[in-house]
Amino acid sequence: xxxxxxxxxxxxxxxxxxxxxxxxxxxxxxxxxxxxxxxxxxxxxxxxxxxxxxxxxxxxxxxxxxxxxxxxxxxxxxxxxxxxxxxxxxxxxxxxxxxxxxxxxxxxxxxxxxxxxxxxxxxxxxxxxxxxxxxxxxxxxxxxxxxxxxxxxxxxxxxxxxxxxxx
Length: 167
Hints:
Elements: H1 2-24, H2 29-47, H3 55-65, H4 70-98, E1 103-112, E2 118-127, H5 130-142, E3 149-153, E4 159-162
Parallel strand pairs: 2-3
Antiparallel strand pairs: 1-2, 3-4
Helix pairs in contact: 1-2
């Protein structure tokens, strides 16, 4: 369902942006070329959430059209990692709210490998009580999370650790 939401949001955003760019473009042959380029970008935006077509693939396509500097490519990579961290954090916080776990801070660490695959390296969550810590580590074990989890109790030195499953 999240993939569908992402695809619809991306389609709407791409449509709005492409309409604005097309209406602001000068007339003549330049406008036709701009519409072709915008149409290609909209198609890529529509296909990306529904397939394994990643940002790295888009960068490879754009390198053939015009070269991007290493700094710009790094910005795309950082954006993907940050988006993954936010997405995972929001899902975790939603799950904790549903389970009645009182938390104050959630930190997710992600990285990207040489194949542009984003992985979650660790999660650190600060909860309000030892009972919340125990419930969260039990939840991680029941659901066999594959991510190392550190659960800290606010205003104390108490920590619960879950190393992640080997599924």
